[in-house]
Request: fold
Amino acid sequence: MDGYKHYIRIDANNIVIHAFSDAFEQPLGTDILVESNAGRHFNPALTDGEGNFIYKWNGMQMVSRANDPDYLLAAARASKLAEINTAATNALQTFTSSALGTPHTYLSGTNDMLLLEAEDRFMQGPDYDNQPIFGTRSKTAM
Reply:
């Protein structure tokens, strides 16, 4: 090939978190040499669509984590969180707020509601008991 070296970096659980060629980056003392006479580029996809790392180092090579219980749990968790966020966003397309003094109905997303709730808390000062936007709140519940 071209005489470049390919390395991976792993975390404490042997999960492959970085892969690179010495053409672009110098290895740390803890990086693992996986190929010594290779091409210039080495940038395999290390994560799935949810951002979970998909390879583990078994001491000799990178292996898929497709059947690893920790990976499956992380993938299921990320998928469920995405589902919950989508459902919450869809459910919160309108809301009513009195933050500006009188009730108004707004069309918006989650960030807009969070900003208005923060404004409401600021306007109410330190005593915001029973000042509802999304229901009754109390200081002890926050």
Residues 4-70 form one domain.
